[in-house]
Amino acid sequence: MIQVLLVDDQELMRMGFRMVLNAQEDISVVGEAGDGLDAVHMADQLRPDVVLMDVRMPVLDGVEATKRITEAGTARVLVMTTFDMDEYALSALRNGASGFLLKDTPPADLVSALRAVASGDAVVSPSVTKRLLGRFLGEGGGTLRDASVLDALTEREREVLVLIAKGMSNTEIARKLFLSEATVKTHVGRILAKLELRDRVQAVVLAYETGLVRPGDV
Asked: For residue range 95-113, what is the model confidence (pLDDT) as tens digits?
């Protein structure tokens, strides 16, 4: 059973999410919080598998709450936002969120995303990530980080990172590069280790921020 903590300052929004999630045989909502500070405390007490986190809240916003929860290792965090070009969402990804979805995401997609995050995967929407990072990089295609950080990667690892940033799964990358899935998984693990990244979401953000992938490439 996947245990979920709902965090949103709007009770009506929490009610809607709770109805959708509790209707699933393998998902249980174990708690609700109306602000980030309560979320941190409840995550520590309840130890849920996933925290479904709003980013814009009073007392403590979802970005700082995400950082505290992921650094403590109490749960994985899936961020929900109203706007696809929300700087809070980008900050949440940088601070350990395993992905983010829009609040109007279809219920089936929300459930699938929660299951993916609970199993250790990251939820990356290439189109949303492209728009989000494109806003901060600007039309000129600037960079937010020094690309020399990528020097630690082999040519093949850079190639795999580009495909990760384009939203491809390990299966799709294996097919594209004519490799086995096991080999791709090894490459992904080495990329994360060398760049000191937590998961694929942070890899995607880094690929854009260093200019390895441009917003117009996806």
From this structure: 888 888 888 888 988 898 8
